[in-house]
């Protein structure tokens, strides 16, 4: 029994070595015939960078005064000013806005649910509720869309004055 196991083990090892030798020979033939595919080491201290082509993506271009920032100025506590960010899709694909979220419950965005065709204009309305707020405000609205980068930040800033009655 021991002899049979030993013979079987030697047979398996022999066949394995033959297969490995054939693979090594095949690979060495491929590399000698395809030397043009090998890369030479970089000796000039150059940085190798991958160029990403985003020319086909949707892209925001905000056309309203202030771009991505809305400064509502000075308001009285309890006021709820609104502003509409206007943008153009300057990309080559329809823009799909999948989400818009304020940094807190006081900043509420409304965005188009239908795709914005290349060259078309869209609007994002933002309402700010100043109840129980005072002083300087700097809130953000994060827009998620099929753009590069996939998120765009809109800012809402201003000053809230508390009146004493």
* CATH T-level topology of the domain at 60-161: Immunoglobulin-like
Q: For this structure, what is the CATH homologous superfamily of the domain at 60-161? A: Immunoglobulins
The CATH C-level name of the domain at 60-161 is Mainly Beta
Helicity range of the residues?
10-25%
SSE ordering: HEEEEEEEE
Radius of gyration: 32 Å
How widely separated are the two ends? 104 Å
| Shape, principal axes of CA atoms | elongated
* DSSP strand count: 8
Low-confidence stretches: 19-25, 27-43, 48-55
Short description:
This protein is of the alpha+beta class and about 160 residues long.
Task: Please explain how this structure is put together.
- By secondary structure, the protein is α+β, with helices and mostly antiparallel strands.
- The protein has a domain at 60-161: Immunoglobulins (Immunoglobulin-like, Sandwich).
- It is 19% helix and 36% strand.
- It contains 1 helix and 8 strands, in the order αββββββββ.
- It has one helix at 2-33, and strands at 60-62, 69-76, 82-89, 97-102, 107-110, 121-128, 135-145, 151-161.
- It has a 4-stranded antiparallel sheet, with no helix packed on it. The chain has a 4-stranded mixed sheet with strand order 2-8-7-4, with no helix packed on it.
- Residues 19-25, 27-43 and 48-55 have low confidence and may be disordered.
